[in-house]
Every structure is written in C-alpha cells, then in structure tokens.
Design brief:
Blueprint: E1 2-6, E2 11-20, E3 24-35, E4 38-49, E5 54-62, E6 67-74, E7 80-82, E8 85-86, E9 95-98, H1 107-111, E10 119-121, E11 124-127, E12 134-137, E13 140-147, E14 150-157, E15 162-168, E16 174-177, E17 181-184
Parallel strand pairs: 9-11
Antiparallel strand pairs: 1-2, 1-17, 2-3, 3-4, 4-5, 5-6, 6-7, 7-8, 10-13, 11-12, 13-14, 14-15, 15-16, 16-17
Organism: Nocardia uniformis
Protein name: Glycolipid-binding domain-containing protein
Pfam families: Glycolipid_bind
C-alpha cells in the first residue's frame, strides 16, 4: 500500500494497493480531490506484466453530475486500444500515466534500468481527468545523483511545460512530485 497527499495543483489524497500476480503486478487505487473548486474521484485498476509493461487498465472518473470510464489494452510493445478501438496515436507507448495519480510515474522507473547520468524518453498513454480522454504524453527522465537511499530524476513533460526533480524511494515508488504530491507514511 502507498498513499500520497496531493498539494498545490489540487488538494486531495491518493491510495494505491499493489499486488504481485502470476503474470506481473496489479495496481488498484483511487484519488479524491478538489481542483478549481470542483470535486472529483478517480478509481483505477492497472495490470502490468512481469516487466512492468502496462497490459490493461480500467479508469473511472466521477464528477459532481457524471461518471465516465475508459478501458485501455496494450500488447506490451507499444500498440493500444481505447474502449476496444485501435489507438495508433499511442504507438510506441509502453506505460500508462493518469493525470490523477502520482503512482503511475513509478511504471517507467521500474521498467527501465536508468543509470545515474542517463536520460530516457518514456512516452505514455495519458488519461486526462476531464472527459476522460487518452492522449500521448511525451516524457523524459534524466537520472541525477541519488540522495542517500532516494533516487532522483529530472523529469520533463513539455506538453504541460513541467519540469521538476522527482524523488523515489528504494522500492521505486515516488516520494516527492513537486507541485503535485507527497508520499505519506
């Protein structure tokens, strides 16, 4: 189990339960928050294979007057469907990233062995809160020197004009996501 307090961009909380399965990992979680005066809840289930590649995901978003969901499936090497329809704009993405989740930034960290000084592009199938809709999100992780047992990555997501140093614990879960979330113990 892991939990994060969302701060700055939104006020809320995320709780995630991770469970090893015979084929990989299952992540079930939810985030409830207030952002721009609106309350919302996101519930998600993400199935990963043994190499931490996203294979299936179900995401349900609830706003004041609506509840919508989206289903994603991936072959593990970059081909996706969204609600059963091929999504060629996501070709090459291996990970899912949820706008409402700090946890999903752990997926490329687990999947890739990034050495200190190395940079990798890790585009993701990005699930937006509003609709929910799924788009391609270009991301770049540059591993910088560790701070004790904590691993640090200079992270960039140009679409959102975001850059910051993401801090992870030894298990590969995010501890500090500046402007978005802080892990709770």
């Amino acid at each position: 189990m892991a939990a994060w307090r969302h701060c700055a961009a939104r006020e809320g909380f995320e709780v995630t339960f991770l469970r090893a399965t015979s084929t990989g990992m299952l992540i079930n979680g939810s985030t409830t928050a207030i952002e721009g005066g609106r309350g919302w809840t996101v519930e998600y289930s993400i199935a990963l294979d043994s190499e931490w590649r996203t294979r299936h995901a179900q995401v349900a978003v609830r706003h004041e007057s609506s509840r919508e969901s989206v289903r994603l499936a991936a072959n593990g090497v970059g081909s996706w469907t969204v609600n059963g329809i091929a999504a060629p704009a996501l070709d090459g993405c291996v990970d899912i990233d949820l706008e409402a989740s700090a946890c999903t930034n752990a997926l490329p960290i687990h999947r890739l062995s990034i050495g200190v000084g190395e940079e990798v592009d890790a585009p993701a199938a990005y699930v937006h809160l509003a609709v929910p809709k799924v788009t391609r999100l270009e991301q770049r992780y540059h591993r910088i020197p560790d701070d004790g047992a904590r691993h640090r990555f200079d992270y960039r997501a140009p679409e959102f004009d975001y850059s910051g140093v993401l801090v992870y614990d030894a298990s590969g879960l995010i501890v500090d996501y500046p402007g978005l979330a802080v892990r709770q113990q």
